[in-house]
Amino acid sequence: MKRINRTFVIFLMVLTLLPSGIFAQIDDCSFNYERALLLYNSGMADSALRIMRPCIENKEMLKNISKETRARIYRLAALSGIMTGNPEEAEKYARKMLINEPDYKDRQNKEDLTEFRLLLDKITPKPSLRLGVAAGVNIPFVKLQRKFSNIALQSEQNSFDGIPGFQFGIIGEKVLTKNISLEAGAGLNRVTFNYNISGVLISPYTPIKYMYEQKIKWIEVPVSAKYYFGQKYFRPFLEGGITGRLLLNSMEKSKAFGRYWFTNSPNSEKILTTFLTDFENFGILAGGGACYDLKKFSLRLDVRYNYFIKNSGSSSKLDNVTGYDDITPDEKFHYSDDINLIDLKQLQFSVGFLYNLNYRVF
Q: Which pTM was predicted?
């Protein structure tokens, strides 16, 4: 009988030491979680925490399990923290749970404690880093500022129109604070402008019409700060920043007047020379939009106005030109039939698809 009692006591001691001893050495966090869940459901929250703590405190072990399993472990640890009277520790684990499973607040477990639900209401998970693609439409605003012509026309009429183009590129966004993030991207852009001129030649007396078309392509690199309103999944925002661009058109350069390109009329041998008054590499942007965050990806609508700062050095030199004859023969474009100075800005509409790499809680 004494031997039986001694065996029973030793068995109880082993059971008592298992949570803090043997199981603590087991590297399988999923196995430890199942054991801890049984203890928690039996009212032994402190023992459940002891079993899970070696896994929770070992980052290498946590990397070997899925985000869903990590979220379940942190949820059980938070509930155990509440049951053992440690709300600070419970909040710490609840935050880590939402980093791994940010949509848990919308589908909480019915067995969750009221204190746990109130704790989650205080925490807001947001995508902290996301990468994706964006594509859309460019609407150019083109203005003819100066025009010099070698063609003598009567009843002259001209029009200068921008034609919408496209944009496509990659984007990345990093969260800085609860409402502010920083975005950078790079993409291909294109717009087109048409220049039409018609009238009657003075000599010989002949009606004419010339039509020029120019496609403008460039690589654009915008960097902007976004301010989001609201804390739910649908969030409008305002943004502002800077943008740079690298023109892909084959262009010439005049020391006196800046960069330009030639455009041929499709109906004749007439040649148009066009100068940009905008500084070609730098501008500012402003706009807004809305973003809808899901667990693994985000959808976004973006509207931006790009204002490229004028290069006063180049435009002022052309402003000093009083007529076509002021263009000296040493300029490569002196034989052009028309020389124009244009201003180009644009409005961008784009739709983005971004993959949420990880989350942060506030």
A: 0.76
